[in-house]
Write a structure and sequence with these properties.
alpha/beta, single chain, Ribose 5-phosphate Isomerase B, Chain: A, 5 strands, binds erythose-4-phosphate, RpiB_LacA_LacB, intramolecular oxidoreductase activity, interconverting aldoses and ketoses, D-erythrulose 4-phosphate isomerase, 45% helix
């Protein structure tokens, strides 16, 4: 699995931890860090979130993990990119269902909301989840795509 990571200055420390964790994970083949590199970089979350979502939409990566202060700005930004389904998730169950029910390719988190150990656990679990296109959820997700393409 190819994964992009990105964050604003509020999320960069957690993003870097998650990036390193994902790079050690044998299930990932590429972990692309789209920035910011450090907290001195004041590029705002929409720039980073949209860039990562565009990489997902273009098929350059399958998924993205985005971090800002709350996860909300990254989520709203990523969802503006056609074809991308992003969610904030700070608990294991929501992260799991975002993939299995909603086929979300993008997970966003708030570094000011949850601690790094919980974030790492959620992301590690999230990599292991997959969407079943034959599931009853598939038709519901298809309705979202139909609206987007209308
Ligand atoms: O959703 C936005 C993020 O939490 C961001 O890191 C902080 O945004 P703000 O500086 O506008 O509060």
């Amino acid at each position: 699995m190819r994964i992009a990571v990105a964050a604003d200055s509020a999320g960069v420390a957690l993003k870097n931890e998650l990036r390193d964790l994902l790079r050690e994970d044998t299930r990932t083949t590429e972990v692309r860090d789209l920035g910011v590199p450090d907290a001195d970089d004041d590029r705002a979350y929409p720039l980073l979130g949209i860039a990562a979502a565009e990489a997902v939409a273009a098929g350059e990566v399958e998924r993205a993990v985005l971090v800002c202060g709350t996860g909300i700005g990254m989520c709203v930004s990523a969802n503006k990119v056609p074809g991308v389904r992003a969610t904030v998730a700070h608990d294991s169950y929501s992260a799991e269902r975002s993939v299995k029910s909603n086929d979300c390719q993008v997970l966003t988190m708030g570094a000011r909301v949850l601690g790094p150990e919980l974030a790492k656990r959620i992301v590690t679990e999230w990599v292991g989840h997959s969407f079943d296109p034959r599931s009853a959820s598939a038709a519901k997700v298809a309705r979202i795509s139909e609206y987007e393409q209308a």
